[in-house]
Amino acid sequence: MSIFTIQPPTFVSGIPATSPSISDSTVIATSLGVFTVTDPDTTCSITSPVTSVYEIRPLTSPADPQKPEFQVWISAAVTQASIDFNDQAVPLPLTITCTDGNTAITGTFSVNIVDEPPVISALPASGTAINDGLQTTAAILHTFSVTDSDDAVTCSVRTPQNARFEVVAATSPAFNIRVKAGATLSAADGPHVINVDCTDSVNTVSSTFTQPACINTPPTFVSGMPGSSASISDATVAPTLLGKFTTTDPDTTCSVTLPVASAYEVRKVTSPVNPQQPEFEVWIKSTVTQTSIDFNDQAVPLPLTIRCTDGNVASDITGTFNVNIVDEPPVITLLHSTGSSINDGLQAAAATLHTFSVTDSDDLVTCSIQAPEATFFEVVPATSPAFNIRVKAGVTLVAAVSPYVVNVDCTDAVTVVNSTFTQPVLDKPPTFVTGIPGNSPDVSDDTVIATSLGKFTTTDPDTTCSVTSPVTTVYEIRKIASPTDPQKPEFEVWISNAVTQASIDFNDQAVPLPLTIKCTDGNVVNDITGTFNVNIVDSPPVFTALPATGTNIFDGLKPATETLHTFSVIDSDDAVMCSARSPENALFEVGAGVAPRFTINVKAGVTLRAANGPYVINVDCSDGVNNVTAKFTQPVIDTPPTFVSGIPGSSPNVSDVTVTQTLLGKFTTTDPDTACSVTSPSTTVYEIRNVTSPVNVSQPEFEVWISSTVTESAIDFNDQAVPLALTIRCTDGNPVNVITGTFNVNIVDEDPVLTSFPTTSYQFLEDTSVPALQLNSFSLKDSDDAISCKVDPATPEATHFEIRAGTVPAFQIWYKGRPPASLNYDVTPVHNVTIICDDGNVFSARYHYAVELENSPPVFVNLPAVTLPSIAESVTSKTLLYTLTVSDLGVPPCYLSDTALAAGILPLEQSTVTPPNTQYLVYAHNPGGFDFEGSSGAVNVEITCGDSVSTVKETLIVNIINTAPVITNPGGSSDVAEDVSGTLTLKTLDFVTFDTSDATCSMTSADGGPFAVTGNQIVKTAGALDFETKATYNLDVTCTDGLLQTTDTYVVKVQNVGPKITSLPTASTLDEWQTAEKQLTTLTLTEDAADCVQTSPTYNEFNVKYEPATKVWVIYYVSEAVAGRSLSYDTNPFYNLHIQCSDAAGVKGAEKIFTVHINDNKAPTIDNLSRSPITKLSLVAKDFSATDTVFTATGSDVENDNVIYSMLSCTPNATCPFIMSPSRLFSRHFKRSESFTR
Questions:
Q1: For residue range 76-122, what is the model confidence (pLDDT) as tens digits?
Q2: CA–CA separation, 355 vs 1070, rounded Å?
Q3: In Å, how far from its chain's centre is CA 520?
Q4: What is the 3-state secondary structure (H, E, C) of 770-820?
Q5: What is residue 603's three-state secondary structure?
Q6: Each residue of 843-857: pLDDT tens digit?
Q7: Distance, CA of 588 to CA of 620 (rounded, Å)
C-alpha cells in the first residue's frame, strides 16, 4: 500500500512584486505581472481589497506544467473613478490568496498607479501683436485647452510675466491668456515670453506663449499745444501753474527740453478726464529762484520746447509753450525832499548828504543824478537796497547858488523811476579852534622818519592848510580824513618822509624853530595864519651792553693787554670819544673798536693785586655837546696755585742705562707766579724746568727732567725703589700758598739685546738622521747681567734638541742625534723648538725655532696597465672592481675624487695592512645603473693617497658595458570602447634610471589601427574603431638608446557598443481618428543596427521597422486594422514608446523615449436645433416638389472636420417623406398640413 504526502503550494516567483507604472487613465483590461506557484491544482484570487477592478488569470500553457503561472490583470470592469490615483494608496497592495483545495497561501502584489499628467493643446508658439500703451481693460490674447482625464486643472503665468499677463479659466477645458487691466505695455520691451504652468496638483506641465512686441502708436497733441501762459511777474519765486495740454497715448511722458536746466517742468495729471488722453500741466518749479526767471536774462515771451515720448524715440513729438514774463519795476523809498545845510567851499572829500532805498524784486538797480547837478553830486550804492547821495570830492560849492536841486533817476534796465532832492549850502570863513599857536614836544635831531609833532583844528570843513615859512620840505600839514566833528577839520603838523639827518640837525638852525601855517577855504579874504614852534634837541650818546660788574680775573702780572669787556656807545649824528678816568687809567684803558664799539682792557705789564680790588673804572664818553659817564667794576681774586694736570703723575719706563738728560713728564698749575722744585729725595739727578711759553699764560707749565749730572750708578734699577717717588713743591711767593705733589719715575731694568736669531725654519732634517748636528746660532747681549738659554724642558722637543753656550754673548742650536732623539715625520712633520733665556733677575724671554722634517711619499704597487676592470650599465648591486696596494712606512689614507663618487664608485675600503703595504678595495654601486651613454663608455677613477704634505695621484679606468634599454612595465592591454573617436593615452612606458633620458620609442606596427607612440606614451590618435571590423589590435613598440634596442607588445581590445540613437524628437502628435498606417519619425544611429524594437511596455499600435530603400529605421503607426483597435484619446491620450537598437552581436545601445500625443476628436454640434425645448416647424399643406427645402441645419466642428448630416430616426418613405442632402431637409409627398418635429 502506498502512502502519499500532500505538499501545500508555495510561491516560486513573482510574489511579492510590483507592477510597472500604470496611468490612472487606464480603462481597459491590462496585464500587470506574472507569478508562479508549485502545485498544479492551485487556484488563486484577490482577497483584499474586495474589488472587481483587479483579477487573477491563469496561463493555459505554463512553461512547467508542475508550476502553474498566473497573471494579475486590470479587469475589463475598470472605470476612471475606480483606478483614480488620488483615491487610494499608492502603490496599492493586492492580497493574493492561492489554495490547492487543502492549504491556502497569501502574498502581496503592489499596483504602481501613477497620475496621468494634464495635456496642453491649441497653444501656439506666438500670438498676434496688440497696440502698446495703457491697457484699460483685460484683453484676451489667446485661448487654449488643458485636458486631464480625472483631475481639475489650474493654470497660471510664471513670474516675472505675471505682473502684466494672466491666465483665466474659460469653459472647461479652455483657458484664456489675457493682458491685465491697468498694465502698460511698451513696443520697446517686447516680445513678451510668457511661461504658462498648468497643474492637476500632482503633475505640472508647462508651455511657452510669445506675445509679439506691441505695435507702437505714437502720441499726438490733442489740445493746449502750442500754448501760452498769462503774464507772470519775474518776482515770482513760488511754484505756479502756467497752463495745460493733452496727448493721445496713455503711456506718454513729457518734459521741458529747452531751455536746458530751466525753472520750468511738466507734471502729469493723475486722473485725466479720458484715461486714453493723458493731461499735462506746465509749472514753474518749486526750485525756481529770482535769477532763473529774471525778465532780463531770457527771451520774452520765453518759448519752452516740450518733448513727449511713449518710450520709442522714433515716436517722440515736440511742441512750444510760451511763458509771458513781465519785469517788476523798482520802488524808491526814504528819499526826503530837502536835506540838511552844508558849508560852501571846496569839498575835500566825498560826503554823504542822505541815504535812501530802491527795492526791486529781481533786478540790479542803478541810480544816477541828472545834469547839471551831476557835476557836484553823485549817487553811490550802499548795502543793498540802500544808496547814498554824496557831494563829490574836490568840487566847490557856492552859497550864492544854493539850494542845489538834485534830480535822481533809478532803473532796472527796463523801467526808470524818478525823485527830487534839494540840498541847501551855507557860506562860512575858517578860524583856528585849538592848537595854534602851538609847540611840539622835544624832537631829537636823530629823527629821520615821518613824525607827528602836533594837531590843530579850524571851523570850516573845506579849509586847507600848509607851512609857508621857512620854505622847506622837512615839515608838512596833513588833514585828518575822519575828524571828530566833520564841521571842524583837524590837521596834523608832521616831519615829512623827506627828512634827513642834515636837514634837522640841532647844530644847524634856530632852536626852537617857528613854523608859519596858512589856512584858507578858497576865499582869499578868509585866509588865516598861525605859528607852531618845533623844539629840536641834540641826541646824547647812549651806553649799551656795559654791565655794572665784570667777570672775576686773577691777580698777578699781566704780561699782555687783556680785554675785560666790550660795550657800545651810540650817537645818531655825532662822533663819540671815550676814556678811563684817573687813577684807574694807570692800570686800565678804553680802546675804540669798530664804531660804535669800545673795549675795557687791563694794560700789558701791570700787576693786579687782589688786596687792592675790586677796581672801579669810571668811563667818560662825549659827542662834543653831551657828556655821559658809566661805571664798570672789575673784581680781582687771589687764588693759590693748584695742580691742573700731570700731578700726581708717572714717567714712561726709563731704562737704567740712561746717562743723558731726559724729559720724564709735564704738569700744569693755576697761578702764573708759581715756581716749583724737587724736594725729595735730596739729589741732583732730577730737576724741574719752567716752560717759557705755556699754552695758557694763566696756567704755567713745568717739565720733570733727568738732569745732565746723571750717572749709570745713580740710576741703576737694582739700587733704589721702583718706581722712585719724587716730591714736588710749588708756591706763588705767598708762604701760605705752598702745594706739593708726587711724580713717580719708572726705572726699568735694561733687557738683553737679541741678534742674529734665525728667521726661517731649518729645512730639511731627515727623520732617521743619527749623529748630533748644529742647526743654527744667535747672540743675546746684556750690559750688566749674565744670560743663560735652554730648550723648554716641558716640551717634547727637549728630547731631540738643545742650546749650547758659545763665546759670550753667542748661543748654538743643536740636534741631539739618535738616540736620545726619535724623530718621526708621520707623527710630527715640523718641530717648533721653544728656547727660554733669562738674566736670573727680571728678564726672561722665549724664542721659537722651527725644524722641518723630510718625508717619503707612498707608492702605488699594482695599478693595471692593460686589462681594465669593467661593469655592465645594468648592474645595480654592489660589485668589487679591483684590489689596490699602496706602499708606505705608515698606513697612508687613500680616497677617491668627487667625480668618481658621483659616478657610482664607492669610497675605498681598507683591507689587509702588511707594512709597508696597505690594500684598498674598489667597489661600484649605482642603484640607478651605470649610464653607458652618459659616461661615454668609461668612468675615470682618480685615486689619491697620502696627506696634505706628501700625496700621490693615479687614475684607474673602469669600462662601462652597454645594454639595451630595459622597460620596467612591459606588455599590458587596454579596453577601448568603439565609440571613442578622440585621442586617448593608453600607456606610459617607464625605463630603468640610466635609460630614462636617452631611450626613444616608435610604433613599428600599429596593426592597421589609429595608434602611435608620442614621446614615451602609447596613444590612440583621432579616428574611429569598429568592433565588428576588428576587435583586437596587437601593437609592436621598439625602444633604442641609439646602439641597442628592445621591443614590447601592447594589446588593445575594442569594446563593442550598441547603436545609439543620436537624433530623435521628444514627441509627435497623432489624430485619434487616424486609421491608416502613418510614418511618425526616422531614427539616426551611430552605426548600422541589426534590430530596433520597443522595450517594455510595448504597444501594438506602433512598430519600428527598417526601410531598405532609404536604409533607415522608421517609427510607424501600424494602422487600426493591424493594431486591432482604434486610437482613443479617452483611453490613451499619449503613448511613451521606449525605443532601443542592437547590433548583430546583440549589444544594445541606450534607450530613448518617444512620446506620441493623441489629439482628442470633439463631436460636431448642430447650431440651430435643440432637444430642450424641442425645435418645431409648422408648414401649410401644399404640394411640394422634390427639391423644396423644408429646413436647413447648420453645424460646426472645433477641429474643422467635414461634417456629415443624416436623420437617424427617419427612413425616407411615405410616412416620413424627407431626406437630408447634405444639410437641408427636402420634402417629398407632403399633401396635408402636419407638423414636423425633430
A1: 888 877 887 777 778 899 999 999 888 999 999 999 988 888 999 88
A2: 105
A3: 83
A4: CCCEEEEEEEEECCCCCCEEEECCCCCHHHHEEEEECCCCEEEEEECCCCC
A5: coil
A6: 889 999 999 888 777
A7: 13
